[in-house]
Design brief:
The chain is mainly α and about 500 residues long. The chain has 18 helices and 13 strands.
RNA sequence: GGUCCCUUCGUCUAGGGGUUAGGACGCAAGAUUUUCAUUCUUGAAACAGGGGUUCGAUUCCCCUAGGGACUACCA
């Protein structure tokens, strides 16, 4: 049994950015490999030259690197089973499709697109289902209906042809899937899939995939559920090649569905509902920009964590895992069968968890960048203090500014509701007293400041809550923010007195 | 339309022939806090429907309904 030698592959097509569904597939493959001391292989499936998008491969690599999913064998890494890019394996596929032809498992078909379209239209008009299959193949122009000489003549004269798989008639193919159990199909419902295209002389996914998985000694195929319908074809291909005894095991992952409404998660949903569907920001060759998790401020650990739990769980109540814990606990048997709706809210919550778990000095560098954009600088010491004060209130590093700007600049306006509620008779007078008390303080610690302020409130027979809120209004412009005296301590005496003066000018009546 | 897959709180899920059906996100209330947030406590919230099998079904089987994927010389 190939069990002792776990080899899995992630096999994306370079047709654009990697979708988070793809990222999750990569993650599960990686996790499964790590768990079993196996190899994680990256194979680029670029057999559709028409859909190739420049830069996709780099994007895929950068995404996996960002997520920390290390590749053991691949296009860049090399390895004993290369090349790992299908466009470089043309000769191999050609050689193998010939085996199928020789054994009668495949045949040449000369039908043009126009002829096929016409046939489809005809069936549709009669409300019948069209398929190029066991029931119709004899009505088309192919090596089954032409005699050998005519077939050869056409091939030699350069007539375009495809090679189709000759699906056997009426029997049950059963395939087993690790997450779904046994799946059965009748071959009559399957069509004669094109194995080799005429347009570019390249194999289709089905052929290339089976040949490569076999040659690369892949032990487990872990891929999205959208591939489940082609599983019987793939099983039949393994049989046709005589590779059934070493056929990999299959695991079809549930789809990631859009947060609301119907269907699987798409690029549009992210744009509409304000969350990324791509790991990294992506700019299409047409210049269209799509947001990425990285650029939106997500930590890669958080993305791995949330993706891991979208379709899998360990059966315990643990929700926070690092990559290593994930790898230790992961199993294909505990992957869910049903599609999982993506929850942007919970995604943010995951990031929040990772943010608060980080030490302040891990965040400070990032915060400095935001600060620089705003035109401020400060020492790491002060910044770390501020981060510690506000990080529990935010989900992303870039939101720290929204909760801490008043450490750097005075309020530009005062919340009217709070003014109405707190700036009562006597408050202006109190503030003037307060200001002079503050200016006399040698000890500018939050503790001392608090003590002196409390004493003044008592002395002046003022309402404690009211005054405290009024001071807060003066300092930050509203009713929010962390401990008031810590803010005052941090911004310093000069700034505090300035803010009181400014507030008095505007609010004094 | 056809084929296949799926179905536990709004969402992610645990569970599994006899349970007060558990957790998390979100939501609500209360407590703490000089504010807001955090935190803590509490609450509302689910086995799609119908038939079987069984002493007993949310759990097993069947049907229906709903959802999803696929149905290209795309992957």
């Amino acid at each position: 049994m190939a069990n002792s030698n776990i080899r899995v592959r992630f096999a994306p097509s370079p047709t654009g950015p990697l979708h988070i569904g793809g990222a999750r597939t990569a993650l599960y493959n990686y996790l499964f490999a790590k768990k079993n001391n196996g190899k994680f292989i990256l194979r680029i499936e670029d057999t559709d030259s028409t859909r190739f998008v420049d830069g996709s491969e780099e994007y895929i690599y950068e995404s996996l690197r960002w997520l920390g999913l290390n590749i053991d064998e691949g296009v860049l890494e090399g390895g004993p089973f290369g090349p790992y890019k299908q466009s470089q394996r043309k000769d191999i596929y050609f050689q193998y499709v010939n085996i199928l032809l020789e054994r009668g498992w495949a045949y040449y078909a000369f039908d043009t697109n126009e002829e096929l379209d016409a046939a489809r239209a005809l069936y549709e008009a009669e409300k019948r289902n069209f398929a190029y299959d066991t029931s119709t193949r004899l009505s088309f122009v192919n090596s089954l209906t032409l005699d050998e000489k005519e077939t050869q003549k056409r091939i030699n004269s350069g007539t375009p042809y495809v090679i189709r798989f000759k699906m056997p008639e009426n029997f049950e193919v059963t395939a087993s899937d690790i997450v779904r159990g046994t799946v059965t199909f009748n071959t009559n419902t399957l069509d004669d899939k094109v194995l080799f295209k005429s347009a570019d002389g390249l194999p289709t996914y089905h052929l290339a995939n089976i040949v490569d998985d076999h040659l690369m000694e892949i032990s487990h195929v872990i891929r999205g559920e959208e591939w489940l319908p082609s599983l019987p074809l793939h099983v039949m291909l393994y049989r046709a090649f005589g590779w059934e005894s070493t056929m990999p095991q299959f695991a079809h992952l549930p789809l990631i569905l859009k947060p609301s409404g119907k269907g699987k998660l798409s690029k549009r949903d992210g744009d509409r509902e304000g969350f990324p569907v791509f790991p990294l920001q992506y700019t299409s060759p047409q210049g269209e920009v799509s947001s990425g998790y990285r650029e939106s401020g997500y930590f890669p650990e958080a993305v791995n964590n949330l993706l891991a739990l979208l379709g899998w769980n360990p059966g315990t109540e643990q929700e926070l895992f690092n990559l290593e814990e994930l790898a230790n606990q992961f199993s294909l048997e505990r992957v869910n069968k049903s599609g999982a709706r993506f929850d942007p809210e919970k995604a943010r919550w995951f990031n929040h968890q990772y943010l608060i778990a980080k030490s302040n000095d891990e965040i400070v560098l990032d915060f400095k960048k935001t600060l620089k954009e705003k035109g401020y600088t400060s020492t790491s010491e002060i910044l770390e203090k501020i981060i510690g004060l506000v990080k529990e209130r935010v989900n992303f590093t870039h939101e720290i500014w929204d909760q801490s700007w008043f450490f750097f600049e005075a309020p530009k306006s005062y919340d009217n509701y709070v003014v109405q509620k707190r700036w009562k008779d006597g408050v202006s007078g109190f503030m003037e007293e307060f200001s002079s008390v503050l200016s006399n303080q040698q000890d500018w610690s939050a503790a001392n400041l608090k003590e002196k302020t409390s004493a003044l409130i008592t002395e002046k027979n003022q309402n404690f809550g009211n005054i405290m809120n009024a001071i807060r209004l003066v300092i930050v412009g509203g009713s929010f923010g962390p401990d008031l005296f810590t803010i005052i301590e941090t911004i310093g005496k000069n700034e505090t007195l300035k803010r009181i003066k400014a507030a008095l000018e505007i609010l004094k009546n």
